[in-house]
Amino acid sequence: MTAAVVTLAPPPPRRHGVRAGTPAIYFVAFVVIALMLGPVLYIILGGFRSNSQITTNPAGLPDPWVFTNYIEVLTADTFWILVTNSTIVAVATTVGVIVLGLMASYVLARYRFRARGALYALFAAGLMFPITVAITPLYIVVRNMGLINSLGGVILPQIAFALPTTIIILVPFLRAIPDEIEEAAFIDGCSRLGFFWRMVLPLAVPGVITVGILAFIGSWNSYLLPLFLLNDNANFTLPLGVQAFSSQYSVDTAKVLAFTSLSMIPALAFFSLFERRIVGGLTGAVKG
Amino acid sequence: MHTSETPKTDDRPETDLAQRTGGGDTPPPATPRRRQRGLGWSGRFEVAVLVGPALIFFIGFVIFPVIMAAYYGFFNWHGYGPAIDFVGLKNYVTILTDPDFQEALGHNAFILVMSIVLQGPVALLLALLLNRKMRGQSIIRVLIFVPYVIAEVVVGTGFSLMLATNGALNGLLDNLGLSALTRDWLADPALAIWTLMAILTWKYVGFAVILFLAGLQGIPEELYEAAAIDGATYWQIQRRITIPLLGPTLRIWAFLSIIGALQLFDLVYIIWGQYISGVAGTSTMATYMVSNGRNAGNFGYGSAVAVVIFLISLTVALIYQRFVLRRDTAGALTERNTR
Q1: Which of A9, B72, B127, B183 has the most CB atoms less than 10 A away?
Q2: Could you tell me if A86 and B36 are in contact, meaning their C-beta atoms sit under 8 angstroms apart?
Q3: DSSP at A110
Q4: Superfamily name with CATH number, domain A80-251+261-287
């Protein structure tokens, strides 16, 4: 499989169409986009309607536009507590995954020792252990550590479960750093750890951004783990909060929609900022 | 045996590179001086310091719980105090003979097959479409990926409201004068699993498209030019060149999709909840596990279900790996054998 070489940056899109788009193609593209965005727009626009508007015409547009739903959500503490919790968890998870993953990937990519293949296989096998399988005993482990209902109890397992993807993306990435650079560094008297600090870290930045974003979005959207480990509203992350809010205000559909659409902003913003990196990273992971 | 005095340049095995680039000519063997078989003590220390933390986390929170699941699965245990009520295989017998579990397993199998049958062709067509020259191409690629980035909870909440009996979809059909088509999308047992499939396709098709687009970029332009010169039509080119060369990407995607289908939990649990999913015919093994394990306070039983899910996933994955993925992952997952 020739494609196994991982590119440091996503390759420029190469196009080979018969000719530039025909009207039919634009039409299909338009329908697809409408289908993909319709539900998202429904959530966002629904937040700008009143409940009576939603009841009389469930599929209508805001008329007139109502801003109180969004204002009420944004001025209440609940939403900001959830955002703070989710941010703490996502940032800590991301930092933890990057630090641990980068160190381990460096060894797996550039050291030569007997257990290396087995170690890599062990981490890669982690892809086969989704959190679903481990969640029941994981709950016990976290409870025994006294971390139930604390954000730390969510952060630590999340770091562990994000490691396999991170390592699988970073190892080929670090391997692609040319040997000549390493040899030159050693000739100049650099130790292997010095090489790690001075050369590998700066060169690894694009890969680190990819795994960082994947870890951040994964953590921001994570549901099962917080569901098991957090049971106090004050410690809820956004997904749990959205669910709690939507059952608490189940009659106030418009407010639920406003709450829901606000909660997806950070992940969407992150994604649109780094879309190329994510796509490039996934490409590298699958091919490598 | 590892007695070299100083750590030297790390020589990656030539097989690695040769295999990765698919090249047949191996680079000349490194000089014996640099062919170091192991690390010195300082090297081993570095390895331990660098890999240690990740390994501890990974074993502590991933491997250990899975092993504990296998252990607790043999006990009737409610989560407090030591597990002492050893029941042998009783939990497993109960699981495998429980009609609810068999039903859930059937749903997982249905979702697994339909995910591939529905999402594969749709994603492939979309990828081919987006691979053509057109205005707004890059923005379309971003937009198609949006559902994948949105949290399952947001998707679940939104679709629950939209697909309710008095929700937006039925409202839209009414507005269009298609009232005859309105349905109870979520609660009708004949329909609910198809609704679930539609939501899953909506959420995950963008991921497949992005993977396929990446794979398409790896196909050499020259092949298309040659085929065009030979007078091949667009669809002939896609069938004879694109799809065969996209094979590795398609197979990896199918693998990820299969694992995802077997572990499906979030969307079902959010939209249908733990009780309704069984009635609506959308329960999965994972929702069965949570309902009958943790929510019922029966941690021994829940652990046993986890083990069953794991064994099923592992079996499917190994079979797939053995018969489908073998040539693609040689050198990646089976790296150990190539050294």
Answers
A1: B72
A2: no
A3: H
A4: MetI-like (1.10.3720.10)
List, as one string, the DSSP characters of B280-321: HT---HHHHHHHHTTTTT-HHHHHHHHHHHHHHHHHHHHHHI
ipTM: 0.79
Which of A126, A118, A123, A125 shows the shortest CA–CA distance to A103?
A: A123
Tokens representing residue A166 in the block: 């991170």
- The confidence score (pLDDT) of residue B337 equals 40
Could you tell me the two tokens for B208? Answer: 């497949």
A187 at B interface, C-beta within 8 A? no
Tell me how far apart the alpha carbons of residues B231 and A107 are, in angstroms, rounded to a whole number.
51
The arithmetic mean of pLDDT across residues B36-47, rounded, is 71
Q: Which domains does chain B have, with CATH numbers?
A: 9-37 (no CATH), 95-338 (1.10.3720.10)
| CB within 8 Å: B167 and A58 | yes
What are the respective helix, strand and coil percentages of chain A, to the nearest 5? Answer: 75, 0, 25
- Chain B environment of A186 (Cβ under 8 Å): 8-9
What mean pLDDT, rounded, does chain A reach?
Answer: 79
Note whether B232 and B251 are within 8 A (CB).
no
CA-based nearest distance B189→chain A, Å: 23
Please state the domain extents for chain A.
80-251+261-287
For residue A29, pLDDT over 50 is answered with yes
**Is B290 within 8 Å of B270 (Cβ atoms)?**
no
The pTM of the full predicted model, rounded to 2 decimals, is: 0.79
Q: Which of A8, A191, A288 is nearest to B21 (CA)?
A: A288
Q: Say which residues have a Cβ less than 8 Å from residue B138's Cβ, sequence separation at least 6.
A: A13
pLDDT tens-digit series, residues A63-83: 788 788 888 878 888 888 888
Closest CA to A73 of A55, A46, A94: A46
Question: Which chain A residues touch B126 with a CB distance below 8 Å?
Answer: 32
Tokens describing residue A202: 């700066």
Cβ atoms of B157 and B164 closer than 8 Å: no
Distance CA B18, CA B31 (A): 18
Mean pLDDT, residues A117-125 taken together: 83
Does position A222 have pLDDT exceeding 80, yes or no? yes
Residues in chain A closer than 8 A to B153 (CB atoms):
221, 223, 238-240, 242-243, 263
Residues 6+ apart with CB under 8 A from A187: none
Q: Residue-wise over B302-325: b if at least 16 C-beta within 10 A, else e?
A: bbbbbbbbbeebeebbeebeeebb
